[in-house]
Amino acid sequence: MSEISWNLSIIVPVLNESDSLEPFIEQMLPVLIGCAPNFEILFIDDGSTDDTLAQLKVLNRQDARIRYVSFSRNFGKEAALTAGLRHATGDAVVPMDVDLQDPPELIPEFVRLWREESFDMVYGVRASRPEDSAAKRTTAKGFYHLFNRITHSPIPGNAGDYRLMSRRVVDVLLQLPERNRFMKGLYAWAGFKTTGVPYQRPSRHAGESKFSFWKLWNFALDGLVGFSTIPLRVWSYIGAGVALLAFLYIVVLVAGVLIGGRDVPGYASLMSVVLFFGGMQLLSIGILGEYIARLFIEVKGRPLYVLQESSEPDNSHLPAAHDHVVSGHTTPEHE
Ligand code: UDP
Ligand code: MG
After folding, report:
1. Which pLDDT tens digit goes with each residue over 106-131?
2. Residue ranges of the Glycosyltransferase 2-like domain (predicted)?
3. Ligand nearest to the CA of 211
4. Which of the listed residues 12, 14, 15, 209 should we mutate to test ligand 1's pocket, taking the one with most ligand atoms within 8 A of CB?
5. Which residue has the higher pLDDT, 18 or 228?
6. Phi-psi map region of 36: left, alpha, beta (phi>0 left; psi -120 to 50 alpha)
7. What is the mean pLDDT of residues 37-43?
């Protein structure tokens, strides 16, 4: 990386965002021109069904710094981010949402901390989440708390995907082979010199959130199961504890019979023990299932996403990122 000429990549997953593209570009261009000698905005069309892709093509034709790759269907934001990291060519990469909830004004500060104070990772911290409901805020808080208790790479609360990563962090992320892409966990796993910049998170510019309660629940489960084996191991302890209690109870029962004679009515205690063990077993089998299901997915080794088209010369079969030059679809395939 030379001192004067470096390149910043913005990667933006988009799913049916035709109303947000233009305002996003309008706000981003002046900021980027002001703080980076070279830059690219790389959109990942995550299987949009509106005219998002058509708009991306037009934007790319007008300005070769705006590039895109397009998935054959919806593969999810995490897959889109991975595709973005793979195709980004910059010396630093910033993932952003297109709905202007990640304020572009923060980028110069991210860049400053990276260039001048040599942080490898600078993430935005939401100082407030006014638009999220109280329920969403509390569950998010509970999730971070639990995650950080049971994993070895704690993630900062209230940090999203909005962050700047240096090339070496990006290269680490690209080496991780897993299909379960819980990106927030992976960012933290990579390590390196990291800092946070607080900001106010504004409301969505247009359209509505693409994440339902159910999607978020599964997302949280992916995070926990992908980064901790404690849910799997805790059963040995619970099992041992319950077995000990059962043993004590047996002693009490036997002693009761020996001292007080035979005691026929035992329906209530019998029932509660049977139900309790039944529930425990189902729960532990369910947790085994969570891991086995993910093992199954990893073992199949399917690609994370399928590209349908892109503004690049076709190189989707190549494993790593910066194997092609910046600029748009007219790029000759040399190097
Ligand atoms: N997104 C995506 N694929 C999905 C869901 C969302 O690419 O399956 C994109 C979406 O277009 C947006 C970003 O991810 O650019 C964040 O989505 P959203 O604003 O709906 O999430 P929230 O801000 O509510 O967390
Ligand atoms: Mg949003």
Report:
1. 999 999 999 998 999 999 888 776 66
2. 9-172
3. 1
4. 15
5. 18
6. beta
7. 93
- Our mutation pick for probing the ligand 1 site, out of 69, 70, 97, counting the most ligand atoms within 8 A of Cβ, is 97
Closest CA to 158 of 201, 113, 190: 201
297-302 long-range contacts (CB < 8 A, ≥24 apart) are: 297/179, 297/180, 298/178, 298/179, 298/180, 301/179, 302/179
Neighbours of 51 (CB within 10 A): 13
Phi, psi (rounded to 5 degrees) for 45: -80, 110
Question: Which ligand sits nearest to residue 97's alpha carbon?
Answer: 1
pLDDT of residue 2: 52
Residue 150 dihedral angles phi and psi, to the nearest 5°: -110, 10
